[in-house]
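thread: overnight batch results

M.L. [08:02]
morning all. the overnight job finished for the chain we discussed friday. pasting input first so we're all looking at the same thing
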Amino acid sequence: MLAPMGLKAHSNRQAKSTPHFGDAVRSEFALLIGWGTIAIFFGTGSRLVEIIAHPIALTAVFVWLFAVILWSAISVVRHADGLAIKLGEPYGTLILTLSAISIQVVMISTAMLHGANNPTLGRDAIFAVIMIALNGFVGLCLLIGGLRYREQYYNLQGVNSYLNVIMTLAVVGLVVPNFTTSTSGPTFSTEQEVFLIVMSLLLYAIFLLIQTMRHRRYFMESKAAVAANSGHHPVQVYSTGFHAGMLLLYLIMVILLAEKFAIPLDNSIEHFGLPQAFGGAIIAALVLAPEGIGAVEATLRNQLQRSINILFGSVLATIGLTISAVLTIGLITKRPVTLGVQGGNLPLLLLTLAVSVVTFTSRKTNVLQGCIHLLLFGVFVLLIFAP
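M.L. [08:03]
and the structure it wrote out:
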């Protein structure tokens, strides 16, 4: 009698834990909307995205593409979370980071190659990613984590590894150009650009080796946090192949939409007379939105290490890979690329790096640290419109 009852209970649990195919299809409605949007915009050529004479139409196209890309990007992070559960950390967050960076590179590349040359677009987008991630989302995570749990804990060795590489690449790539004398202005010479490309890619590759193989434990959640959240997954988990295939489909879709979105973004900045830095901030916010959502959700589950892996990994990949991509595009197309951060943004960048080091000097965080980072994010937004 006991055996059949136990078998029945096991079958019920298995039925509850096994997702239905119909539920999986319904949850991918964004895929239909996204590919439908792609069909419309690619079917009409450049007529929709090149609307400049009608401000209302230009705004509508901008909002339409922004909303569809954001929805699709959130779906990317959902499937990356599924892979993170199936494969374990830090592979899940690494997949998410590389997916988001590929979107960012495509958007910046398209915007750089469209219309009038904007040599500061890449720099503005990279700087915006640093400010939004290290100040905006890190501050928000520390604030809500402190309010909910008073103190949260993380792996000190992993954070130090992130910060060491981030500080090195940020200063060499965004500060040193202001002080070189081979060229006029905050730019690098061709030899310096080639050196920075090779150094950035090599250093990022070494970091990935450390993160995924030699010292993987530095970037893993504590055993207590894993035990507390076991069985409580934020997404419905399917097979590895399903999540990998859907992530690839969404990623291709977002890249195609991003190619179209960069054109009305550039046109909107020129037509409405917005600051050039605003374009970089929009690209950064769009790319970081799904990662920020994932980081906040992880913080609410008291998984601060996963939040750090997502946000710091985004910043590191942005500096290491996006700078290399921007410089490579500049070398191939013979377009000048301005990298040096100037004006009030220069001390803000250095202050952000210094505050990040101070924030993560111990193994726990609190509300005060979150408020400080949010204050620096407010300064960043102010300097966009009142430099």
